């Protein structure tokens, strides 16, 4: 019975996934295209220029230690902040359209009365969310790799794949946060707010907050720690870190299932 | 025979606000049950409890012999929500097919024949449908899998008279095939012609369950008689059930509680040229359950 539910959700998601794929691809292509000129004149974008940035801003952008190498530029311009944020936003949007949105606009009621167990309904919506995000990731991975070949930044496909896999996991994790909060509260606004706070706090902790002892321990609850700490663009897949992200996502998914199963819907 | 709906002390609070209090009732197989009450009385709360959209605060509810939490029980129910929302860009036909697939398959021929009956255009994107046309889609999906039990929350809202007529015919067919219907309404006139029994809910409490035929017996009828010649008032005074008697020359007007038998027999001693008897106004009886006062006379 899950087949029709998943394919219906994918149909409902197709507009969002298509346009976000286009948007993220355009963003990546644009930024990677610029790399050509940076490579040509490393002295302009070298340490001297980086030094002019205020410290906190450098921290915020992941240190900016290395803007002129292929991997360094790819990391800073694409995988440090912007693309993860775009994925998280896309995942949150899809998650909100999965349960909380239909509950708020009233379309969920009829679906709940179908002969489908509520737990299976949540899992089906989660599967559609994951598949939608996977589609965005697959296409944008090809764009990142293709543009890397075009501008010849020397980053191996395996490392781009490792970074992209991390972005997908980050998106999936935050999408599942939104789904779980939406499943528990039925409110899109609450779900978005929880994701927003967690994202901003989590990102700050691993960037500007990392040298601040009072809060640096919080990195253990920051999803970004498990994404960026292993430097996937340089080192390949940080297996342990990614497994933590994936495991946390599974726990959240179960939370979503249990929360939704015991609740009044639409009141 | 297992009751289709069996509720015992069914109670639902939304926080501290009462949605439904201590509902005990049974609906038997093959009956059409009209569920009446003003907006906010607890009709939709009851229906959502029957479908496990919301969970009771206390009390027990069984539908078709099982718990509505079981998907297998819900598979045997057809449901039209009171406020049906269809928002997608998809065509109505695609949505109906999707619902059919989740229900384990519904032949397209059945969808088409229902669409024909209701004169519904299934090729229009759902978000462009008018209220009435949305309601038609809702009715099609509630009936298309030939459920044993059909629950309809305010089914006639937004339907034009022709479609309403077709809908009532469909309800009668469902009953004739031994299946059960629960339909809510805030207007008695909409359900009285097909309902076997009506339950009246007010302020979260079921205040009465009445047989429609019995309700008609209780009805107050306005009767006018015109005779060939003036009649003496004395002939009609004190007849059982006759009230508000007015005799003016050859014309007589009164209201009747219950059976008109005594009046007819008294009138038969004179030459009757004209008789007018208004349909019993069930609405008026119905309203007496809302206002705690005596019905207006």
UniProtKB/TrEMBL annotation, chain A:
UniProt entry keywords in alphabetical sequence: Membrane, Transmembrane, Transmembrane helix
A GO MF term: ABC-type transporter activity
Pfam families xref list: ABC2_membrane_2
Statement: the UniProt record of this protein carries the keyword Transmembrane helix: yes
Transmembrane segments: 16-38, 77-95, 122-145, 157-182, 189-212, 242-260
A cellular component annotation (GO) from this entry: plasma membrane
Name used for this protein in its record: ABC-2 type transport system permease protein
Native species: Nonomuraea wenchangensis
From TrEMBL, chain B:
Lipid bilayer topology: Peripheral membrane protein
Subcellular location: Cell membrane
Domain ABC transporter: 5-228
Signal peptide: none
Family to which the UniProt record says this protein belongs: Belongs to the ABC transporter superfamily.
Keyword Oxidoreductase found: no
Name of the molecule in the record: ABC-2 type transport system ATP-binding protein
Keywords in alphabetical order: Antibiotic resistance, ATP-binding, Nucleotide-binding, Transport
Principal location listed in the UniProt entry: membrane
PROSITE patterns the record matches: ABC_TRANSPORTER_1, ABC_TRANSPORTER_2
